[in-house]
Specification:
Length: 374
């Protein structure tokens, strides 16, 4: 089997009402999809995480990575990953757009390998005996506290056993005091048996994060996510040492090397790689070995990405060691449902992994064309 073509498609979808959270308002969802075809007629799809300018990852894939892949056997996926990474590593481009581009390519290659083997991707990654994975509902965004409470109640009434709540307000929205009040109100409303995760989206400094966590230590919080910016490793260490709520991070981190530093500093308890940023399935799996070695927990990130990434993350969750939970995104996301059939719906805190070969769901051309940009 040889790789014949590598092409990208860019998607964008805008919400009527932008989502509000720690980094501001977020109106438009974007994605770059990578489609790879082979000489024996099998094709695969992957997604590069995009928050801005999908044209950048498209250019990296088509101009820089496609020449590495032309005529090669997708079964050599680990070696191809290293060759792609080597393209600009020596010039300092070992994070960022290049990594996101590699992620989309690698995901598409594993989709091909699954289809060629007639098995779902999580099975050819080694499986873990999981055809369904535990999940939590993500996320309750900034709003008036009664609205946040109502949203949390609705998700728990709908069968979820865990819910993520956004904190990290700036002064205009009431700051850390409103953050604490919102979490306490939600705990009061959902009761003691529900897992509550908090996500700061890097909006605090370490001192603020420690102060807020200490005020919430008696509210049985499952984790505090991205309390400080991803580059503030000292801050992460301070937060982890300065209070008792477990610290989660990783959606903003690139590859096994980024996670190595977070882990070596003992800065985190729960690792949250995004398959569309960490280097596809190959990157996600390599991080899994580190998580295993250090006996940490793995909780794949999804969020504002398009459906291919949400689906690929489900296969990551089904195959990695030390899985904690999968992020099931219930908040509005125009690019989540891109398939000819519905995305799996969680039941009683678990979500089924599609069992057909590869990623297991087929893209719907009519839906794609609605969101495709040039
Ligand atoms: Mg997050």
């Amino acid at each position: 089997m040889k790789i014949k073509t590598v092409k990208c498609r860019m998607l964008a979808g805008t919400l009527e009402k932008p989502i509000q959270f720690g980094i501001g308002a977020f109106p438009t969802f974007s994605a770059t999809l990578v489609e790879i075809s082979t000489d024996d007629g099998i094709s695969g799809v992957g997604e590069c995480i995009v928050r801005k300018a999908p044209q950048v990852t498209k250019t990296v894939v088509e101009q820089m990575l496609a020449p590495v892949l032309a005529g090669r056997d997708p079964h050599d996926v680990e070696g191809l990953w290293d060759e792609m990474f080597q393209q600009l590593r020596g010039w300092g481009h070992y994070r960022g757009f290049v990594f996101e581009a590699i992620s989309g390519v690698d995901t598409a290659l594993w989709d091909i390998l699954g289809k060629a083997a007639g098995a779902p991707v999580y099975k050819i990654l080694g499986g873990a005996g999981r055809s369904r994975v535990p999940c939590y509902a993500s996320s309750v965004y900034f709003d008036e506290i009664p609205h946040m409470v109502a949203q949390a109640r609705e998700q728990i009434a709908g069968g979820h056993s865990g819910i993520k709540v956004k904190i990290g307000r700036g002064p205009a929205l009431g700051g850390r005091r409103t953050d604490v009040a919102s979490v306490k109100a939600i705990r009061e409303a959902v009761g003691a048996d529900v897992d509550i995760m908090l996500d700061v989206n890097s909006a605090y400094d370490a001192a603020t994060a420690i102060k807020v966590c200490r005020q919430l230590e008696d509210d049985d919080i499952t984790w505090i996510e991205e309390p400080v910016p991803p580059d503030d490793l000292d801050g992460y260490q301070r937060v982890r040492e300065g209070q008792s709520i477990p610290v989660a991070a990783g959606e903003s981190e690139f590859g096994v090397f980024g996670f190595r530093d977070l882990i070596r500093r003992r800065a985190v308890d729960i690792l949250q790689p995004d398959v569309a940023r960490v280097g596809g399935f190959t990157g996600a799996r390599r991080v899994g070995a580190l998580v295993h070695a250090f006996n940490l927990r793995y909780a794949p990130h999804t969020g504002f990405s398009a459906g291919v990434s949400h689906l690929a993350s489900l296969h990551v969750a089904a195959s990695v060691p030390n899985l904690m939970t999968y992020e099931y995104f219930f908040a509005p996301n125009p690019l989540r449902d891109l398939f000819t059939e519905p995305f799996p719906t969680p039941v009683e805190g678990f979500i089924d992994v599609p069992q057909r070969p590869g990623l297991g769901l087929e893209l719907d051309e009519r839906i794609l064309r609605k969101f495709e940009i040039t």
